[in-house]
Specification:
With about 700 residues, the protein is mainly alpha-helical. Helix content is about 70%, strand content about 5%. The strands form four sheets. Strands 1-2 form a two-stranded antiparallel sheet. Helix 1 runs parallel beside helix 5, helix 16 runs antiparallel to helix 23 and helix 17 runs antiparallel to helix 18.
Length: about 700
């Protein structure tokens, strides 16, 4: 009984922190209509800032707290609301989701860039010099007492704000109907601004309160938000009392698991993954209302032509050949993962681009493919690649079953919880047996991965594996393009536009979701297997949730409905990272920060930049005079690089300059808008508002 009381006190103290953070999350969603994935990251930045002021620079604790909570946190909230969220406020849920995911990635990268993650930064609990309070057989530290008192005070203040003040009524009314709220004299912009300021302040309070009890690590502190997610889902993203109840459940569960969980090699990860498991169960069990703001403008998915798809496949293989003939061995190892990670990014196209099912666990599924190949493909048999793809597809099909119950933000939360469970528990399991069959995952370490046997050759060199990955990416891109042109692809787009209409017209919702999740997971599994071959050794940290967020962001930046997004994502993720890494250790996390900033800048443009780039370069590709000139210049630069006649960077700059100049010339050679025949309006030039009237007059004149 004494031990039970001790764990209860610890659990309630932790629950108080989760309640504070979760209440800020609910406040932001209730008042601003945004589910902030970066809420925990804001608390993490507040904790680092408090350490810097109070410990790093030796400021008095009251002054450091006042600076963080009353100056830095409100300023950060105003910045997020004004610069990031307001431009996408009138867009759909997906755009706001991408913005907060980009903010989460950027905050983690910024913290790692500014504060060395390898340096310890301990924080002293509040009033640590005072004797602990006695509560029967249990003791309560002053830090725990302060934490619980702050949580109760915040609960009372928030309830009073939302239900007894005009500002609170204004915040709630602005989300229900912004136009109607304006007619009553409310100011939705002011309400959203206040919600973001208060939400970030609550995140800062939670981050500072929990930082002394955990390691001051950017990723760990940011992922504490998973527990707050669970508490917020208990409250259905609306109710503060239920959110506090959910926080108590999560906090006590973690404490009791830490104290009473049997000690063996298989269960330690359960305690770490308990909040994510509870979140997943809560999403499945609790009834959920449709999230407000879910309606969105349908994004057109371009129809890839057969000729364009073949050109894309040829460009992928040609680029791989250029890499292996120009780059040295070390550079090939560094840049070789362009095509395997491009496959992981390509898996978003059928799932999110066509079917509208956003998933944050694609890299975790890629880890399943890498593991399967690593254990079964030790002898190089190609059958193991097929098994790796099928195993990953099976995992995707299992995810699709609860996905039938979830949609929108709830689906994203479910897939994020799945990724956390895989990272904290499943991937950490030691080897075990099922019906006499030994199953080994990472076995609490790393897994060695080798290349396959192909046509009697054992592919082991980085150059061979790069070409193999490029061929797989090219063939998979052709397959995805064929799916987009097929009846199944049209059904997926109909599913994305309206699930209710899809079912009404005779579609089988379960079958379609299982099929697209399995297809997407199979592509990710293939990418993971190839990635493992190129890395030769893989660990669980390479496939966690945070590692997968930049790939998701680049996929969104490129355009989730664009077939060429796989190649774009691979290049955009790997090339800047390698270039910046060569600048020195200070630039280690700069690439992730730049990806996040780009995602923030382009979240309001859901069509992506890959489609824009294709439209910009199409005139040059169709020009029968300038295109051969470009190919000749590129071939000459390739030959010069292979012979070592000039520095590689010089030839790259020269080729890029010539390509841009020729593209500009090709665009100038295009026929003007008035020279395009009417049947090509909207194809060879953009459709204009007066085109319909012009055509109507022309048809009337010929009647």
């Amino acid at each position: 009984m004494d031990q039970f009381l001790v764990f209860t006190v610890v659990g309630l103290s932790t629950a108080a922190v989760y309640a504070v953070i979760g209440s800020g999350l609910v406040l932001t969603h209730t008042a601003a209509g945004v589910f902030n994935f970066a809420h925990g990251a804001a608390g993490m930045l507040a904790a680092f800032s408090y350490w810097q002021l109070a410990v790093g620079w030796g400021w008095p604790v009251p002054l450091a707290l006042a600076t963080v909570l009353l100056v830095l946190a409100p300023a950060f909230g105003l910045l997020v609301e004004r610069v990031l969220m307001r431009p996408v406020q009138n867009l759909g849920e997906a755009e706001r989701l991408v913005m907060t995911v980009a903010l989460l990635t950027g905050c983690i990268a910024f913290a790692r860039w500014v504060w060395d993650p390898n340096a310890p930064r301990p924080l002293v609990p509040f009033f640590s010099d005072r004797a602990a309070l006695r509560l029967g057989p249990a003791t309560v530290t002053w830090h725990q007492a302060v934490t619980m008192a702050v949580a109760l005070a915040i609960a009372a203040a928030l309830w009073f704000l939302l239900h007894r003040t005009r500002a609170g009524t204004e915040m709630r009314a602005s989300v229900d109907d912004r136009a109607l709220a304006c007619l009553t004299g409310a100011d939705p912009l002011r309400a959203g601004r206040l919600a973001w300021v208060l939400g970030i302040q609550l995140a800062a309070v939670g981050g500072i309160l929990i930082a002394p009890t955990v390691a001051l690590d950017a990723q760990q502190l940011s992922l504490l938000i998973v527990s707050a997610y669970t508490a917020a889902v208990f409250g259905r993203l609306r109710s503060l009392p239920l959110t506090f109840l959910g926080a108590v459940v999560v906090g006590l569960l973690e404490a009791y698991l830490a104290g009473y969980l049997p000690r063996n090699d298989y269960l330690p990860g359960v305690r770490l993954a308990a909040p994510a498991l509870l979140l997943f169960l809560a999403l499945l069990v609790f009834p959920h209302r449709r999230l407000r703001g879910r309606d969105r403008k349908a994004i057109p998915v371009p129809m890839p032509g057969r000729r364009g798809s073949l050109l894309l496949a040829g460009a992928i293989v040609t680029l791989a050949v250029v890499f292996v003939t120009v780059l040295d061995e070390n550079a090939v190892i560094s840049y070789g993962v362009v095509f395997s990670l491009g496959l992981v990014a390509l898996s978003f196209v059928p799932l999110a681009g066509l079917a509208g099912q956003v998933s944050l666990c694609q890299l975790s599924i890629a880890g399943v493919g890498a593991l399967t190949w690593g254990h079964l493909g030790a002898q190089g048999g190609l059958w193991a690649i097929v098994v790796a793809v099928l195993t990953a597809a099976g995992v995707g099909a299992l995810i699709a079953l609860p996905a039938l119950r979830l949609s929108g933000i709830y689906l994203v939360l479910g897939t994020a919880a799945f990724a956390v469970v895989m990272d904290r528990w499943i991937f950490t399991l030691p080897a075990f047996e099922v019906f006499g069959v030994r199953i080994a995952l990472f076995d609490q370490g790393s897994v060695s991965v080798t290349g396959p046997d192909l046509f009697g050759l054992h592919l082991t060199s980085p150059r061979e594996l790069m070409v193999l990955a490029a061929v797989c990416l090219a063939l998979t891109s052709l397959a995805v393009a064929a799916i987009r042109r097929s009846r199944f692809g049209r059904r997926l787009i109909a599913l994305r536009d309206s699930e209710a209409a899809y079912v009404t017209l005779g579609g089988r919702l379960l079958g379609a979701k299982v099929a697209v999740f399995a297809l997407s997971a199979g592509i990710a599994g293939l990418g993971g297997a190839l990635y493992g071959m190129q890395q030769q050794t893989v660990t669980a940290e390479q496939f966690n949730l945070v590692a997968g967020l930049p790939i998701f962001l680049i996929a969104v930046i490129g355009g989730l409905g664009t077939i060429g997004m796989g190649l774009f994502a691979g290049l955009a993720f790997v090339v800047p990272t390698q270039v910046l890494t060569g600048l020195g250790p200070w630039a280690h996390d700069l690439s992730a920060l730049l990806i996040a900033l780009t995602g923030m800048a382009l979240a309001h443009s859901p069509s992506g930049v890959a489609a824009r780039m294709r439209d910009q370069w199409t005139p040059l590709a169709r020009d029968r005079v300038l295109m051969p000139v470009l190919l000749a210049v590129l071939s000459a630069c390739w030959a010069a690089a292979g012979l070592g006649a000039a520095p590689g960077w010089y030839l790259v700059v020269l080729a890029a300059a010539v390509a841009v100049a020729l593209r500009t010339r090709a665009a100038a050679r295009q026929p003007g808008p008035d020279d395009v025949p009417p049947e090509w309006w909207g194809v060879r030039r953009p459709w204009r508002h007066d085109d319909g009237e012009v055509l109507d007059r022309a048809l009337a004149a010929h009647r």
